[in-house]
Amino acid sequence: MGITKTAIFTDQDNSLAAIAKALAHPARIAILKHLIKQDSCICGDLVLEIGLAQSTISQHLSVLKQTGLIKGNISGTSVCYCIDTEAWQQANQTFAGLFAAGIPTSNDCC
Amino acid sequence: MGITKTAIFTDQDNSLAAIAKALAHPARIAILKHLIKQDSCICGDLVLEIGLAQSTISQHLSVLKQTGLIKGNISGTSVCYCIDTEAWQQANQTFAGLFAAGIPTSNDCC
DNA sequence: ATCTTTTATCGTAATATTGCAATATATTAA
DNA sequence: TTAATATATTGCAATATTACGATAAAAGAT
Predict the structure, then answer these.
(1) Residue A34 counted as domain residue
(2) Which of A13, A92, A94, B39 is a Cys-bridge partner for A9, taking CB atoms 3.0 to 4.6 Å apart?
(3) Number of C-alpha atoms within 13 angstroms, CB side, residue A100?
(4) Protein CA at B91 to nucleotide C1' at C8, angstroms
(5) Is the CB of B4 under 7 A from strand D?
(6) Residue B28 binned pLDDT confidence (cut-offs 50, 70, 90)
(7) Of A57, A81, A54, whose CA–CA distance to A69 is shortest?
């Protein structure tokens, strides 16, 4: 159906999947890395930096903003984006929790 | 177009996005957690554990296997799946690297 | 007020994902 | 061999995603 049955999963699992989904595109990874690198925020330089159309970059930014990983301030005609530190650290914790729990003693299957 | 322009991104970004994509569904998160919890491997119990059709679970397992996060051994009529420890630790490192680099000094945008 | 710049949104097309039923395949049990 | 069990694959249908061009909206410059 192309639609995920969110109701049958835990909130935690849905939430983790949602964050992963936001990270599940190289353009969004590139955007986040660029925001991290610059520390101070950039705006439409991303369009030049990454080779995608302006509308496409805008869409990716929208996805990241909706997930809460980034936030944007209007400054003049341009918009200044940056990592939302709190959400970022929370995402870090969430993934760390998943991975930390998941290192079994042996690597043998049955 | 529905198709990602992988060519314009770095291998690292594509790889990170690919792992994130594998984690970007609650069913797959639930499967991984179950595999972690059981340590010893399970097979079609997942169909009962998670409320999805057998064919759907099989597809999700296929996605996880293709990404390399899990592996499966045939044991009788059933197949025994488990986390691929090495790939799992590598994925852990990859995400940790992204998040660790990304905690800026201030949370102010511009 | 008009023009320019920057970003967001809309419309559209191509492709991907999710999910299930039905079927195929493979192995064990009888 | 035949039946039963477990998993994979195939064939749909519904929805989501990716991408772009065109257009709208908002703020600053002339």
Answers:
(1) yes
(2) A13
(3) 7
(4) 35
(5) yes
(6) very high
(7) A81
Residue B70 has pLDDT above 70, yes or no: yes
* Residue with the larger pLDDT of the pair B50 and A102: B50
Total number of domains in chain B = 1
B1: in domain: no
pLDDT for A8-41, tens place per residue? 999 999 999 999 999 999 999 999 999 998 866 7
pLDDT at B1 over 60: no
**pLDDT at residue B49 greater than cutoff 60:** yes
Please give the Cα distance from B87 to B91 (Å, whole number). Answer: 6
Q: Is residue A1 assigned to a domain?
A: no
Report the distance separating Cα B49 and Cα B8, nearest Å.
41
Domain of residue B67: give its range: 10-88
| Residues packed against strand C, CB within 7 Å | A 1-5, 43-44, 47, 54-55, 58-59, 61-62, 72, 77-79; B 1-3, 21, 24-25, 27, 52-56, 59-60, 63, 74, 76-77
Q: Which two tokens stand for residue A49?
A: 């930096």
The tokens of A69 are what? 């990983």
A106 part of a folded domain: no
CATH number at residue B63: 1.10.10.10
